[in-house]
Amino acid sequence: MSWASDYLDEARAAIVGAGSLQDLEQLRVGYLGRKSPLTLRLREAAQLEIEERAELNRTKIHLEDLVKTARRELERVAIERVYADSAVDVTLPGDPVPRGRLHLLTQIRREIEDIFLGMGYEVFEGDEVVDAWSNFDALTTDAGHPSRSQNDTFYLSEDVLLRTHTSPDQIRLMEARTPPIYAIMPGRVYRRDTPDATHSPTFLQVEALVVDRGITLADLKGTVLHFFRQLFGPAREVRMRTSFFPFTEPSVEFDVTCFICDAQGCPVCKHSGWIEMGGAGWVDPDVFRNVGVDPDEWSGFAFGLGIERIAMLRHGLPDLRLFWENDLRVLEQF
Ligand code: FA5
C-alpha cells in the first residue's frame, strides 16, 4: 500500500458519503485544494521518483472525477427535491364544485311540455298580469261571480289583476290565431288562498286548448288519460266527475288516487282517497263568440291542471309548501 492509495481510499469514502453540495465543496478543498496534502506532495514532485509522481497525478485525476460525479449526483437529488416539493399531483381528485340543477317544478313542467309536443301541440306562454276581460269577462265569468271578489283575487287596479288561472291564455291565443288550435299554456297564477298542504297563494298551472272541427268529449277524456298515464304510469287510477266552470259546458274535474295513502284516506286527500288534479270541459259557445270563433263551425275542449299537485303525486311529497321553501335537503333529491 502506498501513500497515494491510502489517500485515495480515505478521500473516496468521504466524497461518496458527502450529504450536500457544501460538504462536497469542503472535501474537494481539503483533498484537492492548494493546501491539501496531495497538492503539497505534488509540489515536491521534482524530488520524487517518476513512478510516484505519476501515481500522485493519477490519484488527483481520479479524485477530480469522483468529485465531479458526486456533484452531479447531489445536484440531481437537489433538483428532484425542488420538483417534488412544488409538484402538483394531477391524479388527486379536485375540490367538488357544487352543481346546480333545474327546480323540480321546472323539470315536471318540461316533462309535461314534452308529452304534449309529442302529440303535436304547441307551447304558448301568456302574461301573468292581465285585464279583467281575459281573466273573467271573455270566459263568461259574470261580475257577481265570487272568484272576482277582492277576497279571492289580487287586483293591481280596478281592471288589472294577477291572473287567477291560465285560462285567460286561451282567450289571448284565440284572439291572436285562427283554428285549428292544439296548444298548452303553462305558467304561474295567483289566488288569495290560505296556504295548506295542497294550496298556495301562487302556484303553477298548465292549460290545454283544442279547437277543431268534429272534436268530441271522448277526445278530452282520451287526451287527459294518455297524459296522466305518461306521467304517472298505468297503475294510478283517474276519475272524471261532473263539475261546473263558467267557461265550459259540460264541465268535469279530474281526480287521481291519493299517492300518500293509496286511496285509503289521509289528511292530504282530506280522507277521500282522491286528489283533485284539475278542471276541464267543452268550450262554451259564448267563449268562442267572445273571441270571434264561430261555434257552429268549431268545437273544442280545454283543461287546466295544477303542476304542484302533479309533482306531489309523482314523488309522493306530502306538502306543496316544500317546493317554495328552498330547503336544499329536499331540492337536492330531484
Ligand atoms: C281552474 O283554474 C280552471 N281554470 C281550470 C279549467 C281550465 C277548467 C279549462 C275548465 C277548462 P281550478 O280552480 O279548479 O280550475 O284549478 C285547477 C287546478 O289548479 C286544481 O285542480 C288544482 O290542481 C290546482 N290548484 C287550485 N288552487 C290551487 C292552490 N291554491 N294551490 C295549488 N294548486 C291549486
Task: Give an account of the 3D structure.
The protein is of the alpha+beta class and 334 residues long. The protein folds into two domains: 3-86, no CATH class; 104-331, BirA Bifunctional Protein, domain 2 (2-Layer Sandwich). Helices cover 41% and strands 19% of the residues. It is built from twelve helices and nine strands. It has helices at 3-16, 21-32, 37-43, 50-86, 104-118, 132-135, 168-176, 217-232, 285-290, 307-315, 322-325, 328-331; strands spanning 122-123, 129-131, 160-162, 181-190, 202-212, 238-245, 248-257, 274-283, 299-306. Strands 1-4-5-9-8-7-6 form a seven-stranded mixed beta sheet, sandwiched between helices. A two-stranded antiparallel sheet has the order 2-3. A hairpin with a 2-residue loop joins strand 6 and strand 7. Helix 5 packs across helix 10 (307-315). The chain is rod-shaped and about 135 Å long. The model has no long low-confidence stretch (mean pLDDT 92).
